[in-house]
Design brief:
Length: 708
């Protein structure tokens, strides 16, 4: 049959056009998000059953799920507890042994089976005497024309929804493949989209056919000849997904560059020079290198779109400050956005101290707080060391700007800056101290506030390369790959909770020596989970048990003013131990704090723990991070070991991505990424690289051309 001659691709044909799909089936399929032929063909099997070689009933074990088959020799439904509970049971025989299959409280199962039926069963034994499986997956073997679809082959097992039989769906997919795909496995693909995808790939691999055609891959996904085919097909289909994404990213970037003119923000050094003198340390080589990249962008033709990655403590703030000064020198305003109020406050304190002597206004705008009309001091006190940099009029580098008779302003805020409707005038640069908390959409929303300001996104957690190339694929990347010298080392230990008394003894020693400590708990209040500690409860205990040392409490439900007060007290060492939730994970900078104790460490992600650990080791003293966990489940102890072994943020981020998946790592609102049916962000770095290479070729080679 030939496809209809319409502009709409046959892949977009609704499933109701297929034989056997009526309104009821269509509604069931829609619950699986299957609406078109294209959707159906990409419905990925959940697993496969090799029905060429199956296990005899006598070979079934308790250890591993396996497929077997047998004939029903007995069956029955038993009700008990006055009929409120039930168990339905079938007994199968295959000549080697008998197998009992039970379904608890699902009395309707009765209607699916009859004496003498032949049944496939997938599961593992719950009991061996008699052999019993509870709630196995089953499929009655039926004779007839189509039986070859289901038996004597590797059969796909699909995700289902209520009322939709496995056999029926498998039959539908088989017939759809036969009608639309089988022919095109040999000749050109039936669907123009697939042909295009094949051509793109051929262009990239320059004839080296390493992966099957799209038609073949789709066929192999549903009905592989060998189980090894499944992964080959997955790679091909994943590659297509990544290519599509990378092309979108490239085109978006290209369109952006075509329409967006950069504001001239290269600066003239008249603020940066005095700033660097008063800073009190010399920038590292890595910081300087990154600043060169930023300066080239901000003085270039297209607005900067740059991601700044650097491990915790690598000194991103100083780089951000220099970038801000470039725009300020050029007569533009700058917005700096932090993910939490605490961090916005901290930046505000720093930047006020740094910038006001330079005659730059710094304003704080958070949900709860606004400083406004901060006037730059006319004659500020000289900074430490008495260098006369503060009076910009007299500084040798400080020329009054002809561009900008009014002093420019640095606005600092949380994402409230986004939603306040607050208009940021003359915005030249937006800096997002992102730390994985801002989504792509939010990023765009913010940037639209100005007329294509430059954009610098800073992430604290090193981003696994796969995410760097997808989630942040439209940004250029700078990496600060060097920590400032003279940092105290951090030692990390994973311990069980019975060691806590010794740990506290150790912490007291450190406090007595004048150091400070963070103690982090997973919950604000107790929620009844066994063994999971809450910061408010522990605060009550530790307040007295740690006396005379003073204990502060910090969590997300405090009022902003309370948070600020406790942070100020901790910074001043008036509070010696800060009990907190993971709220403090981002950015907080108190160099005298050298101990980080995390209880119920298994409740946190690795990247998060790495962030928490980054709060210490900021001064010259040796620091200690102690992770307490009793959990053995889900590889918790193995996960935590990664932290004992390395302080390399990239390795940790990659381990975290592999162990927890991108959803966990990014947070739900974060992702802005399409859902990949076949692609795996934790594993597919090579495919993503290939996709990017291809997309670059396609988008660059044919500017506005025919390929795209
Ligand atoms: P992060 O990259 O985690 O945001 P920060 O910018 O907070 O790191 O810097 C961590 C600490 O290191 C701060 O106390 C900062 O003043 C200090 N610092 C930054 N750059 C240098 C440098 N080149 N030499 C010495 N200390 C530095
Ligand atoms: Mg920071």
């Amino acid at each position: 049959m030939s496809p209809p001659e319409t502009k709409i691709s046959p892949l977009a044909t609704p499933l109701t056009a297929l034989w056997g799909v009526g309104a009821e089936r269509a509604a069931q399929l829609a619950r699986l998000n299957l609406r078109t032929i294209g959707d159906l063909l990409l419905h990925r099997p959940r697993r496969y059953e090799d029905r060429r070689h199956f296990c005899s009933i006598a070979q079934l074990t308790r250890d591993e799920a396996a497929t077997t088959r047998g004939t029903i020799v007995a069956l029955g439904l038993r009700r008990f507890r006055g009929g409120s509970k039930s168990v339905f049971e079938i007994i199968l025989d295959d000549g080697t042994a008998r197998l009992h299959c039970r379904w608890w409280n699902l009395p309707f199962m009765e209607k699916y089976f009859a004496m003498g039926d032949e049944v496939f069963v997938y599961g593992k034994l719950k009991e061996t005497k008699p052999r019993t499986i509870d709630h196995p997956e089953t499929e009655v073997i039926e004779g007839g024309e189509e039986s070859f679809i289901h038996i004597n082959r590797i059969a796909p097992v699909y995700p289902l929804t209520e009322g939709l039989p496995q056999r029926w769906l498998r039959g539908l997919i088989w017939r759809t493949l036969e009608r639309f795909v089988a022919a095109s496995r040999e000749s050109a693909a039936h669907f123009p989209e697939w042909r295009e995808a094949d051509e793109k790939l051929a262009a990239l691999s320059r004839g080296a056919a390493t992966l099957p055609s799209r038609a073949n891959a789709i066929h192999m996904t549903h009905f592989p000849e060998e189980l090894t085919d499944v992964e080959i097909a997955r790679q091909r289909l994943a590659l297509d997904e990544f290519i599509e994404l990378q092309i979108q990213i490239r085109l978006r970037r290209k369109k952006f560059e075509a329409q967006a003119q950069a504001l001239p923000c290269g600066g003239d050094n008249r603020l940066i020079k005095p700033f660097l003198v008063q800073l009190g340390f010399k920038l590292t080589g890595a910081q300087t290198k990154v600043l060169r990249e930023i300066r080239a962008d901000m003085g270039g033709a297209h607005p900067m779109r740059r991601l700044l990655q650097g491990d915790v403590g690598s000194g991103k703030t100083a780089v951000a400050a220099c970038a801000a000064l470039m725009a300020l020198e050029s007569g533009f305003n700058v917005a700096l956005m932090a993910p939490t109020e605490i961090l916005a406050e901290q930046h505000f304190h720093n930047f006020e101290k740094w910038f006001e002597p330079l005659g730059v206004k710094v304003e704080l705008q958070t949900g709860s707080k606004k400083t406004s009309n901060i006037q730059p001091r006319k004659v500020a006190e000289p900074p430490r060391g008495g260098h006369p940099t503060s009076n910009i009029q007299r500084h040798p580098h400080a020329q009054p700007s002809t561009l900008n008779p009014q002093p420019s302003t640095l606005f600092i805020g949380t994402h409230a800056l986004l939603t306040s409707g607050f208009d940021l005038p003359k915005l030249g640069l937006v800096i997002i101290d992102e730390q994985h908390k801002f989504g792509v959409a939010q990023r765009e929303q913010l940037v639209r506030k100005g007329r294509y300001p430059h954009l610098l996104v800073m992430t604290a957690t090193p981003i696994p390369r796969t995410l760097g190339l997808t989630l942040y694929g439209d940004l250029d990347v700078s990496v600060i790959d060097e920590l400032p010298a003279g940092r105290g080392r951090i030692k990390t230990f994973v311990r069980t909770a019975d060691k806590l008394p010794k740990v506290w003894e150790f912490i007291r020693e450190k406090l007595a020596a004048g150091r400070q400590a963070y103690v982090v708990y997973p919950r604000i209040e107790e929620s009844g989970e066994k063994g999971v500690k809450a910061v408010t409860k522990e605060f009550e205990n530790l307040k007295t048990s740690l006396a005379p040392f003073r204990v502060g409490l910090l969590h997300g439900r405090l009022k902003s003013r309370e948070k600020e007060e406790v942070m100020a007290a901790f910074r001043a060492n008036a509070v010696n131990v800060l009990l907190a939730t993971s709220l403090i994970e981002v950015g907080v900078d108190v160099p005298n704090a050298t101990v980080m104790l995390v209880e119920n460490a298994e409740q946190f992600g690795l990247a998060q723990l790495h962030q928490l650990r980054g709060r210490i080791g900021r001064g010259a003293h040796e620091s200690h991070c102690i992770l307490i966990s009793d959990a053995k489940t889900g590889g918790a102890d193995e996960r935590l070991k990664v932290l004992e072994e390395t302080t390399d943020g990239f390795r940790i981020a990659e381990a975290d991505l592999k162990m927890r998946g991108p959803g966990e790592l990014l947070g739900r609102e974060q992702s802005g990424l399409p859902e990949f049916r076949f692609g795996n962000l934790a594993e597919d770095l090579n495919l993503i690289r290939r996709a990017r290479e291809l997309a670059t070729q396609l988008v660059e080679v044919s500017p506005g051309g025919k390929t795209i």
